[in-house]
Amino acid sequence: MNFTTKIPIQKSNFPIDYNSKIISIGSCFASTMAEKFDYFKFQNSVNPFGIIFNPVSIENLINRAVNKIEFTENDIFFHNEHWHCFETHSVLSTTSKEVLLQNLNTILDNFRNQITEASHFIITYGTSWVYRLRQTQYDRISIVANCHKVPQNQFEKEILSIEIIEKSIRDSIDLIHSINPNCKFIFTISPVRHIKDGFVENQRSKAHLITALQKVVTLSLSKCIYFPSYEILLDELRDYRFYAEDMLHPSQTAIDYIWIKFFENYVSETEFKTMNQVCEIQRALKHRPFNPDSESHQKFLTNLSKKISDLKEKLPLINF
After folding, report:
1. Residues in Cβ contact with 158 at an 8 Å cutoff, skipping those fewer than 6 apart
2. Is the pLDDT of residue 139 over 60?
3. What are the residue boundaries of the structural domains of the chain, listed by start?
4. pLDDT tens for each residue of 271-318
5. How far does Cα 66 stand from its chain's mean position?
6. End-to-end C-alpha distance for the chain, whole angstroms
7. Over the Cα atoms of the chain, what is R_g?
8. Is residue 30 a contact partner of residue 24, using CB atoms and an 8 Å limit?
9. Residue 159 above 60 pLDDT?
10. Which helix (H) or strand (E) holds 168?
């Protein structure tokens, strides 16, 4: 007897393995899933410019990296005792203009190098709602990635049309393929609801993202795939016990469930044994002995050290 409606998931034709180089970018859910990649010791980079929610801002950063458009003083501003950049998350903001510019351009160089080497690009979109600067001295952008607590009256709020989102996704793919034609893409939509926009407005926002993504993925199956994380949480799990206390973000149980659905379909089955070995080591590393000097614990440490060295001999890049 089934008590849930199962979301069908198409297995990837370009599965991830331990030789894959993954870039995860997008909403906070991208960071959440990237933590799983880190736990299982895949080669993964996540949100170099911090959490970014909308497709246009993600495309802007990819364009900067691919075309080597460095950040300058015209791209940053001073507000509330800090220097900020409208194209990046506030996690990068700092009290020094020089430090901010140096950090931004160092990250940009590293991001470009990662793009050229990436085997898989995982992009998680969070919302279609964006904030556009009413008046701007910036040459490159009007839609911001983060408002940095600048007064609301300096922005116009709008929803991106399906056509604009579709074009932004296609342009992001084309930019990445211009320097890395073999890169594959996994797209998903964050299951986190943005109810500050309004309940109806959140559904409208997600619908725009879903419609635009389906148009792109359907015509690009050889290089793109869609992972239904949004649909899994809202339909297959469909219960508030799978949400965190704010009733918006997925609970740890839901995150673990969605991750299982992901790796069962998008990670090569040949790597499942290695993932189990990594998991055993990770659990062992968290073990806190009652008596650290006991003979049994010393034997435990010796066995653990051998497991790590055996795994590192097979996969030298793994580091615990």
Report:
1. 129, 130, 132
2. no
3. 21-267, 270-320
4. 999 999 999 999 999 988 888 888 888 898 999 999 999 999 999 999
5. 19
6. 42
7. 21
8. yes
9. yes
10. helix 162-179
- Measured distance CA(206)–CA(199) in Å, rounded: 11
48 Cβ contact list (under 8 Å, min separation 6):
25, 107, 110, 111, 114
Provide DSSP, 186-254: EEEE-----GGG-HHHHHHHHHHHHHHHHHHHHT-TTTEEEE-HHHIIIIII-SGGGB-TTSSSBPHHH
pTM of the predicted model as reported, rounded to 2 decimal places:
0.93
d(CA 150, CA 121): 32
Q: One-letter amino acid identity for 313?
A: E
Tell me if 126 sits within 8 A of 29, measured CB to CB.
Answer: yes
Q: What's the CATH number for 21-267?
A: 3.40.50.1110
Residue 120 β-bridge partners: 22, 184
Cα–Cα distance, 198 to 128 (Å, whole number): 13
Q: Please say whether the beta carbons of 66 and 112 come within 8 A.
A: yes
Give, in order, the Cα–Cα distances in Å from 228 to each of 7, 65, 219, 237.
Answer: 8, 28, 17, 12
Question: Is residue 297 classed as helix, strand or coil in its secondary structure?
Answer: helix
Name residue 206's beta-bridge partners.
Answer: none
* Amino acid symbol at 262: F
CA 179, chain centre distance (Å): 21
Local confidence band at 110 (pLDDT 50, 70, 90 cut-offs) = very high
In the block, tokens 């952008």 appear at 141
